[in-house]
Amino acid sequence: MAGIYIHIPFCKQACHYCNFHFSTSMQLKEEMVDSIIKEIEIRSNHLVEGDDISIIYKHEKIETIYFGGGTPSLLSKKELQRIMMAVYKNYSVVELPEITFEANPDDIYLEKLLEWKNCGINRLSIGIQSFREEDLLWMNRAHNATQAANCIALARDAGFTNFSIDLIFGTPGLSNENWIENVDKAIDLQVPHIACYALTVEPKTALHKMIVLKKKEDVDNELQAQQYAILMHKMREAGYEHYEISNFAKYGYRSRHNSSYWHGKSYIGIGPSAHSFNGKERIWNKANNPIYIQSLKKSIIPFEKEILTQNQQLEEYIMTSLRISEGMNLKLVENIFSKEARKRIEHILMTEIESDQFLLENDTIILTDKGKLFADAISVKLFL
């Protein structure tokens, strides 16, 4: 089984993430959709300039389709239908795939939701970020607290039972009490899947510049750790499964698409800057939209490629397996990589990792709640 990730590089306003804005002409928007469809066809059927970029084989079935990155909600019904038809025409899709669509609360209204549902979308990922007006203003979000709560009711009115929301913690000024309010609100609304992330400040962003200039307060790492601990406790108490470091789900509502990343399944990335992976190779398309469009007009996908070494494949497995509730299987490490790799991991685990940060049961390493706070650091220590 494999997945398809479709990056839609449309944006309502200028930002560091996209360079394809809402103000872009309809002609360019149509050309981008044409290019995305062309890439789907090429990846399915051809070798490009001597490189096999199909990533998955024709006989493999597509289990998940994910529209995300940029702003897929700016696709018209016709454009969305065209992309969906291209996927089904060029790949074998399972009978009941998970088809996720990213949207922000200010993009969600009943007519649009019904359009998406009629096009085959059966799961939503909603970028709520917070139910508190103060947080949304600080993050410069386009939606308000009322829209954040109302979009969930609208999604249910349109017939969506499978959806996820994103929440951000650790923002300056967000007290532990405020964070508890946010988490309790999501629980009270019976949201089936919740993804929570600590605020990170990326270099060369507007936020980073404002923090450097002392115009905004910097993040407090200790407070972030406290709020993550609160989150884990509240979610467990409410009956959510903590199946990945940042993800919590009610029974039966895990994200099948994101789970495929963490379990090392193959996936195809379509669109500018999209990544593809098959366990041994990683391919990423160039992020430049004009180059992407012009290249696809010539039936060329503008991409770069990396073939992972055995060590890199092991590191990939260490990093992803430690994030999930199933943990890292040492027998798998021994069988796929080497006995030496297993022995080395066990040695570092016993000598350099605090004993209350992990459990070792049935040849499987699983991080404790405390260990999850240090997951990245633990992964790096276990790398070759």
Any overview of this molecule?
There is one protein chain. The strands form three sheets. This protein has a nine-stranded mixed beta sheet, with helices on both faces. It has a three-stranded antiparallel beta sheet with strand order 10-11-12, with no helix packed on it. A three-stranded antiparallel beta sheet has the order 13-15-14. With 384 residues, it is of the alpha/beta class. 42% of the residues lie in helices and 22% in strands. The protein has helices spanning 26-45, 77-90, 110-118, 133-138, 145-157, 176-188, 206-212, 221-237, 256-262, 289-297, 310-321, 330-337, 339-352, 369-373, 375-382, and strands spanning 2-8, 61-70, 92-103, 123-129, 163-169, 193-198, 241-244, 247-249, 267-270, 275-277, 281-285, 303-307, 328-329, 358-361, 364-367.
* End-to-end distance: 30 Å
Number of helices: 15
- How many E strands? 15
Mean pLDDT: 90
Rg, Cα atoms, Å: 21 Å
The biggest beta sheet is recorded as:
9 strands, mixed
- Spell out the helices and strands N to C: EHEHEHEHHEHEHHEEHEEEHEHEHHEEHH
SSE-based structural type: alpha/beta
Which word captures the global form? globular
Percentage of β-strand residues: 15-25%
Short synopsis of the structure:
The protein is of the alpha/beta class and 384 residues long.
Question: Which properties best describe this structure?
Answer:
42% helix; alpha/beta; 15 helices; nine-stranded mixed beta sheet; 384 residues
